[in-house]
Amino acid sequence: MVLGKGASSSLSMNKVDGAEEMVDNSNNFTVLVADDDPLIQKLHEMHLKKFGLKVQVVENGKKAVDLCHFGATFNLILIDKEMPVMDGAEATKELQAMGVNSLIVGVTSRDSPYEKQAFMEAGLDYCFEKPLTADKINFLLQELNKNN
Amino acid sequence: MEVGQMQGRLVDYTKSLFMEGFLDGQFLQLQQLQDESNPDFVVEVVSLFFDDSEKLLNDLTMALDQPNVDFKKVDAHVHQLKGSSSSIGAQRVKNGCIAFRNFCEEQNIEACLRCLQQVKQEYYLVKNKLEALFRLEQQIVAAGGSIPMMEMGF
């Protein structure tokens, strides 16, 4: 079966692992992506925009914390673990201490359960292994819809 | 060669890259993200992968050439290469990195050097294959044709 292209309306058909899904792109959710890898930044931004999310990208944890400190709000913060200046775990602790009202999700290349657990303990709501996929974004959208 | 033949050749070539394990489903996800407003998305992302990989492979070569190898540094580079290869679906490179990391943990220099050679080989193979793929796509577009969408379930 041939993959379909996205429709121009707010509802589009996405083929995810062979199954069709109706994706509701008519949301106003905002996402902050914190990752130092330009490839991951580009990939995540594109992936999230396809789902109708409004995306801002920063390259380290300190910039993520500073944005929130100066009043920016996001429904979802996707945060890498390994970043210069301030890593994901430290940034997550600071964001939690600030009381940000965002779903904070780690997206890491680290695949050992121990390292994921350590990252979770910094205060993440969820932790996914890279790369971000349509399934994972769908899951997060469901969580955002529940919370809002 | 007419457009239809070129399109058929592209589909067959792309399928072969999946069948031979050079690419996995993540590459299909990249292709699905490309659209009229971002027609060069796949090429741009893959170019970033090429840039990342060349630098990391150089860094790895230097790191393993030191009299006292810093395995933590080597592991960090391999980890990064694993991440970017995984993100674009370069399966064989990713698998090479997984094996590489195991030997970093064992601090086995000889095995790490063999892994580095293996990963370099896999990288240059997939680079050549992807560049050939993009050339086929360019030929189709230049001849006025469109790029056929990949079919799932082959």
TrEMBL record, chain A:
Which Pfam families does the UniProt record give?
Answer: Response_reg (PF00072)
Q: Does the keyword Phosphoprotein apply?
A: yes
- GO terms for biological process, alphabetical: phosphorelay signal transduction system
Instruction: Please give the SUPFAM superfamilies that the UniProt record associates with this protein.
Output: CheY-like (SSF52172)
All copies of domain Response regulatory, residue ranges = 30-145
Keywords for this entry?
Phosphoprotein
Q: Which SMART domains match?
A: REC
Give the modified residues of type 4-aspartylphosphate: 80
Residues spanning the membrane: none
What PROSITE patterns does the entry give? RESPONSE_REGULATORY (PS50110)
Q: What is this protein called?
A: Two-component response regulator ARR22-like
Q: Which organism is it from?
A: Durio zibethinus
Automatic annotation (TrEMBL), chain B:
Matches recorded under Pfam families: Hpt
Which Gene3D superfamilies does the record associate with it? HPT domain
Asked if the keyword Endoplasmic reticulum belongs to this entry, the reply reads no
Q: Which domain of life is it from?
A: Eukaryota
Q: Which Gene Ontology molecular function entries are recorded, alphabetically?
A: histidine phosphotransfer kinase activity; protein histidine kinase binding
Signal peptide start and end residues: none
GO biological process terms, alphabetically, are: cytokinin-activated signaling pathway; phosphorelay signal transduction system
Predominant cellular place of this UniProt entry's protein: cytoplasm
* Domain HPt: from-to ranges: 38-133
Sites bearing Phosphohistidine, chain numbering: 79
Q: Where in the cell is it found?
A: Cytoplasm, Cytosol; Nucleus
Query: Does Protein biosynthesis appear among the keywords?
Result: no
The alphabetical list of record keywords is: Acetylation, Cytokinin signaling pathway, Cytoplasm, Nucleus, Phosphoprotein, Two-component regulatory system
Provide the function of this protein.
Answer: Functions as a two-component phosphorelay mediators between cytokinin sensor histidine kinases and response regulators (B-type ARRs). Plays an important role in propagating cytokinin signal transduction.
Swiss-Prot/TrEMBL domain comment: Histidine-containing phosphotransfer domain (HPt) contains an active histidine that mediates the phosphotransfer.
Name of the protein = Histidine-containing phosphotransfer protein
Q: Which organism is it from?
A: Durio zibethinus (Durian)
Gene name for this UniProt entry: LOC111279266
